Amino acid sequence: MNSKRSFFLVYLVFVVVSFVSFAGEFSIMSFNIQGHGPGSSSHRVSNTRWVDQIVQVIKMSKADIVLLQEVPLDTSNNLLKSLVLKLNKKGDNWNFCSSVKYAKCNMDLNNAILYNAKNVTLKKDLAYSPPFNFVQYYESTENDPRRYQFVYNNVQVIEFAHKDKSSQSFYVVNVHLPGPNDQEKVFEERRILELLYADYKRKKPLIIAGDFNIRRSELKRGSNFSDAIIDGNEGRYIDDWGQKTTLSKSTTAIILKNDYDHFIVNKNSLFYLSEQMRHVFTKNKVEKYDTLSIGKEKYSNSFDYMDLSDHMPIMIRLKFY
Prior knowledge:
16 strands; 7 helices; globular; six-stranded mixed beta sheet
């Protein structure tokens, strides 16, 4: 009897500790999935292998919210429908929203957000209302009604709530700034993003993420995000160092090039970073991979990995107070 009771108590403690460790936490992943510029969707949308690899990356991240950039979409969102169909095979409840109804860009350059409705609830897509008015601007550009005049009008601003804090919501902003070769547009886009951050950081907790085409050092030193957490604020992120996320064109290893993908989180009273920004594939600070296995596929150099993307997927984990 005593041994059974002891076993039960040990088991009970294990269950409680496991629950405490994971309850009140959620993860967000960001991934620029295109990688080869306009026109590359022609060999990807119907490529089952590529779609399956994106699904595998999402599963590896165990994310509740997934931000995608350079998403090749038609008006029916067929790629996103395919992704959630594959993700929902084991009892999850994935759904999506995209910029396809209002973005003024090549259809290959849409933004999209996937979210597991089992854990998070989409409360509102702010693209449809003032002061954003992205949809209104798409329908008529004669008078620009937008306070935030993003170049391609493809930024997503979504209000979410998590099941563990359903009475409190937060904003997630999915961004893809213009390419690094067009510094004038990048600077202007960053200025608009800073304005959005200044306006909304005191309203609700705010997470801005995506492909910034800007290094972390530039965001820390030369922007108005000085009171935010950019990727992290301790350990590897104690100085201006940034985790590289884009790839070189190496044929000998998977070699990383620039730190262009980031998370910007305002300091708030709802949640904190329980795990700082990292690649989905490792918790370590990395400059290259000799090999990388995703599902049934194995990559041994940058050139091969670019069949998937020219970016590494990144993620953070947050925990409620």
